[in-house]
Design goal:
Length: about 500
């Protein structure tokens, strides 16, 4: 049985799930990135504006504290750091070659590119450090002359603004986004299952109808709903089933007519054959007193009458199997006695070796078992070479009977067809080509089989018949003709 994941239902569910997961990931990822960028940009704008406003507010006092070329004092630098330090910020001041760190923040924490660009204008950069995200703002400090002209002081200020609150805000957004994604995934799975159910229901109905059609219910039809592709497929199936039903009905009618014709002809031939057979003994005795050529002609007629009688009986028997009227009457018999009786009646006792245990008993239909043995042994005597050996033994589940000759064997190309009706291996022999087919039909009526296998030398036919218990569990049925096999 195929795994569910490889079926159409599994593929639909997987496709819906992949699409839903991809869509959820894209929507959540894009939304998260947009919000993240907006939150970080907003925090950056606020921090830059605050630093700019603070520096502009302290520009005049600082300019007044160190007029001319006098350097700023440590007190002035500390005042500048205090004015910029707020909300856990850190401020590092660089004046010419003098560094004024803030706690454990120093000039090594300032990115090199930011330090180079901060000499002439205010620049910013986000930097991962100390287990979190920080915004680094670098800007030069200007002083204002009395004529309101800004002059560089040679001082650079680097402000470290923590983004912990923004990260916490973004972290709080991840859980709702993950929850929304899970909800969307569950909805997608539900929609996928529902859609697969709706899509596959007509497909399953078509499959069930096809199996019913294959089982012989040729009147199977499906209701056509809608106008989509599945409805068109259902309509095509109904048309095909109707055409098939018509064709099979015509074939069955022709086959029934053929069987009835063969059965009727066979039964009609019985009447003249009975009259002809009644005088065969008298003709046989008269042939001994006739001249050689008339005697030969009489013997030829007698032989052909016997062949015709055998052919008619075989056709009648075949018609019984085709019409299903063949019945099985089981009796427990001695297999050895049944084999010896079959050979003795036909005068084959001296030509066949029998290897059957004396105490072997089995439940068979005696006349049909006799037909099986007679056909196999007669076939071996006519087309094989001595010795012809018949063996039988009991198996774990039934009876096994083997008939072997030591002749040239059946050509390999003919082996698959020897049980077909009217088939003659190598186009040889004077038989009708029905004997092996009838023998197999009788074995199958018992619930058993007949197989053929080449030997070195000769050919081996093996009959297997099930025990009464096995046969009761699995009633035997006569199979239909194989394709290409001639009708009875």
């Amino acid at each position: 049985m195929r795994r569910v994941y490889t079926g159409l239902r599994g593929r639909l569910v997987i496709a819906f799930t992949v699409i839903a997961v991809t869509a959820s990931a894209l929507v959540a990822g894009i939304g998260y990135e947009l919000v993240k960028n907006r939150v970080i940009e907003r925090a950056e704008e606020v921090a830059v504006a605050d630093v700019r406003e603070t520096l502009e507010g302290t520009r005049v006092p600082i300019g007044a504290l160190w007029p001319g070329d006098g350097p700023p004092t440590d007190l002035e630098i500390s005042a500048l750091q205090m004015s910029l330090r707020a909300q856990s910020r850190a401020v590092v001041v660089l004046y010419e070659d003098y560094l004024y760190p803030d706690g454990d923040f120093g000039i090594a924490d300032v990115p090199a590119d930011l330090r180079a660009r901060a000499a002439g204008r205010m620049v910013t950069k986000r930097q991962e450090m100390r287990g979190g995200m920080w915004l680094v703002i670098g800007t030069p400090v200007w002083r204002v002359e009395p004529i309101h002209i800004a002059q560089p002081t040679g001082m650079s200020v680097f402000v470290f603004v923590p983004l912990a609150e923004e990260e916490q805000l973004l972290g709080g957004m991840r859980r709702p986004l993950a929850t929304a994604g899970a909800i969307m995934l569950a909805i997608a799975l539900a929609v996928a299952l529902f859609s697969a159910q709706r899509v596959l229901l007509p497909v399953r109905r078509l499959g069930s109808a096809a199996r019913a059609l294959g089982a012989g219910h040729l009147d199977t039809r499906l209701p056509v709903r809608g106008q989509d592709e599945l409805a068109e497929l259902t309509a095509t199936f109904n048309d095909t089933a109707a055409a098939l039903e018509r064709s099979v009905s015509e074939l069955r009618a022709l086959e029934a007519m053929s069987r009835r014709f063969v059965a009727d002809v066979s039964h009609e031939l019985r009447t003249p054959l009975t009259a002809m057979t009644a005088v065969t003994d008298m003709l046989s005795e008269e042939a001994e007193r006739l001249p050689r050529e008339p005697a030969t002609a009489v013997r030829l007629v007698l032989r052909e009458i016997e062949r015709l009688r055998t052919l008619v009986e075989q056709l009648i028997e075949a018609s019984r199997f085709d019409s299903g009227t063949a019945v099985l009457n089981l009796e427990t018999v001695s297999v050895a006695d049944a084999v010896h009786d079959c050979l003795e009646i036909r005068g084959w006792s001296e030509q066949v070796e029998v290897e059957v245990p004396a105490g072997l008993s089995f439940s068979v239909d005696p006349p049909r078992f006799d037909v099986i043995l007679a056909n196999l042994v007669g076939n071996a005597l006519r087309h094989g070479e001595p010795p012809v050996v018949v063996t039988a033994r009991a198996t774990a589940h039934g009876l096994e009977v083997k008939v072997r000759d030591h002749g040239g064997g059946i050509p390999p190309a003919d082996l698959p067809h020897v049980f077909n009706r009217f088939y003659k291996a190598g186009r040889r022999g004077d038989g009708s080509g029905l004997g092996l087919s009838i023998a197999r039909s009788n074995a199958q009526l018992h619930g058993g089989t007949i197989s053929v296998r080449p030997q070195r030398p000769g050919t081996l036919f093996t009959v297997w018949l099930p025990s009464a218990q096995t046969s009761a569990r699995a009633p035997a049925r006569t199979p239909a003709r194989t394709p290409g096999q001639a009708p009875a």
